[in-house]
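Let us work through a complete example step by step.
Step 1: write down the sequence.
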Amino acid sequence: MRKVLRVHHVLCLPLFAGEGYSDGFSRNMSSVKSWLAEHMDDALDIVCAPDMICGDCPNLTKQRTCRDEDNHVEIKDRRLVGVLGLDQPAIYSWRELLEIALREMTEERFLASCGNCEWFRQGLCCYSAWKKRAEEIVQR
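Step 2: predict the structure and record it as tokens.
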């Protein structure tokens, strides 16, 4: 069974450091991040919907949708598909996704995507730190 990854998590995962919506969410995201590090070239289904990280998110409903009245998470995913030039639905490896993001993501694009994110506003991420960490991951 292939793993499923929502598009905007390409920006979240490199800088994820154990903080999140809940302990369960944080543990799950840490687990996914570790799995990706060990499976850089395995196939991932890229989606604009809840994925393997979202499973333990307290904002996920029983119908597997986000408690997000204005649908900003899905809109963020769809915009990133265009910004990164991804096919969707499609299959990519973690390495391919990071390489594409490193090639296509600019600071302006990063801010447009992440500027309203709670974690960005708390100072847990920024473009330069994301870029540096993504480069380190790809070079492994």
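Step 3: interpret the result. The helical segments are 9-12, 23-38, 72-84, 94-104, 107-114, 118-121, 127-139.
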